[in-house]
Design goal:
By secondary structure, this protein is an alpha/beta fold. It is built from 17 helices and 13 strands.
C-alpha cells in the first residue's frame, strides 16, 4: 500500500499460483479487474487498447500483463496525463518480458514488487499446517496447496505440465520436452551445489549454451533462484560459481520422486532440500519487506563454506551455516571460523548455525538454533 500511495502504478511479479491476483484484489477491492489470460479481453487489448483502458482509467488491476506487453505503452500516456497514485495494479509471471516493457514504457512510473509463495509464518495460520520440516518440504509453499488442502504430488504434476506446455514454449523453442524434463530432474538433484554447465549439458545431451539459456529462463520465470558467491576484497582464491535453488522446495522434492515426508527424511539429498527451504525463507522475507535479497554464499578452494551470507558494504557480515542434522556438532562452525579469518578481526561476523534439532545453544560465539522452532530471529 505504501508503493500505491507513491506511484501511479504498482507491478507485482512472481511465479504462477503465488497469490498475485488474490493479493491485488484484496488490497484494491474497488479497482476494476481485467485478466489478460481471458481470450476476449486479450483480443480487445490488442485490437482496441484505448477502448479497453479508458473505461477503467479511475483504477484497474491488469492481470498477467506479460500476455499483452504492448498495453504498457498506452498506460504510459494515461499515467503521464494523470499522475494520481495507485491507479493501475499490474501483475506478471514472466519477469523478462515485463521488465523489458517496463524499462521502455513505465520507468519511474511504477513500483516493482516480487511475490513468491507463502512463508512458514503464513502457512502456520492454517489449522492443518505441516508439523515437521520434512512435511514442509513435501507439501511445498504454493498458496493453493494450503488454501484448498490439495494433494501435493497432483498439484506439482499439473504445475509442471502447465508450465512447460503453456509458458516455456512462448519463451524458448522446445523441440523435445523429454530432454527438458530430464534437465529439471537433474537440477533438483543438484540443489545447493555449484552450477556446472558442462556436466549438465553432458547428462542432458544438449550444449552448454542451451543449458545456460534454460537456466536463465527458469530464473526469470521464478522457478529457480540463483545464489551468487561472495568473493570481494579477499586475497585468497575463492570459488566463483553460483548455486541454484528452487523457488518452491516442494517442486524440487516432487521432481526427485520423493512421495512422502518419510522418504525425504531418509534421502541422501535431504540436506540440500533443507537448505533450499531455509534459504528461500530468508529470500521471501526480504522480498515481502520490499528489500532486494542481496544474499551470497562463501566457499574457498579448500571446500570451507558458509551457506548463506550477507554483508553491509564489507564492514560487517551475517553468516549462516545450515545443517539438516538433528544433533549439533562443533565442526558445523568451521566455515564461519574460516570466513572470520578471511575478512580479518576488525570486521564483525555475526555467526549462526541453523539445524534441525530442538536445543538452542551457542558455540564459539556462534548462535545455534532451529528457525522453524525458535523463529527466524536473524535478518541477514
Amino acid at each position: 500500500m505504501q508503493c500505491a500511495a507513491e506511484y501511479p502504478a504498482v507491478t507485482i511479479l512472481g511465479p504462477r499460483q503465488s497469490g498475485k491476483t488474490t493479493l491485488a484484489k484484496m488490497a484494491f477491492p474497488k479497482h476494476a479487474y481485467l485478466s489478460l489470460e481471458d481470450p476476449d479481453i486479450r483480443t480487445q487489448a490488442l485490437a482496441d487498447p484505448r477502448g479497453l483502458l479508458e473505461p477503467v482509467a479511475h483504477g484497474a488491476i491488469l492481470d498477467e500483463i506479460q500476455r499483452v506487453p504492448e498495453l504498457l505503452s498506452y498506460l504510459q500516456g494515461m499515467i503521464d496525463s494523470d499522475r494520481r497514485p495507485g491507479r493501475f495494479i499490474l501483475t506478471g509471471s514472466h519477469q523478462p518480458q515485463v521488465h523489458q516493457a517496463i524499462s521502455q514504457s513505465l520507468a519511474g512510473r511504477t513500483a516493482v514488487l516480487e511475490l513468491l509463495p507463502f512463508t512458514v509464518a503464513e502457512i502456520r495460520r492454517y489449522k492443518d499446517h505441516p508439523k515437521t520440516v520434512f512435511e514442509w518440504i513435501h507439501q511445498g509453499f504454493y498458496p493453493g496447496l494450503h488454501e484448498n488442502t490439495l494433494q501435493s504430488s497432483r498439484f506439482f504434476r499439473s504445475y509442471a505440465a502447465t508450465y512447460i506446455e503453456r509458458d516455456l514454449r512462448t519463451l524458448i523453442q522446445l523441440k523435445d520436452l523429454s530432454l527438458f524434463e530430464t534437465f529439471l530432474r537433474l537440477l533438483a538433484g543438484r540443489v545447493g551445489q555449484l552450477i556446472n554447465y558442462a556436466s549438465l549439458a553432458n547428462d542432458v545431451g544438449v550444449s552448454a549454451t542451451t543449458i545456460k539459456t534454460w537456466i536463465s529462463i527458469l530464473k526469470a520465470s521464478y522457478i529457480l533462484f540463483e545464489l551468487p558467491p561472495w568473493y570481494a576484497n579477499i586475497r585468497k582464491r575463492l570459488v566463483k560459481s553460483s548455486k541454484l535453488y528452487f523457488v518452491d522446495v516442494g517442486l524440487a522434492a516432487w521432481l526427485l520422486g520423493l512421495e512422502t515426508p518419510a522418504q525425504i527424511e531418509r534421502d541422501p539429498l535431504r540436506g540440500g532440500l533443507y537448505e533450499n527451504l531455509l534459504i528461500m525463507e530468508v529470500v521471501k522475507g526480504r522480498l515481502n519487506a520490499g528489500k532486494v535479497p542481496q544474499l551470497y554464499f562463501f566457499r574457498d578452494n579448500h571446500g570451507n563454506e558458509v551457506d548463506l551470507l550477507s554483508t553491509s558494504a564489507g564492514r560487517s557480515f551475517t553468516a549462516i551455516e545450515i545443517k539438516s542434522a538433528a544433533t549439533f556438532q562443533p565442526e558445523f562452525v568451521k566455515g564461519i571460523d574460516v570466513l572470520r579469518k578471511s575478512v580479518g578481526e576488525n570486521v564483525p561476523v555475526d555467526g549462526w548455525v541453523w539445524y534441525n534439532g530442538e536445543r538452542r545453544t551457542k558455540c564459539q560465539d556462534v548462535q545455534v538454533s532451529n528457525p522453524l522452532i525458535h523463529g527466524f530471529s536473524v535478518e541477514p
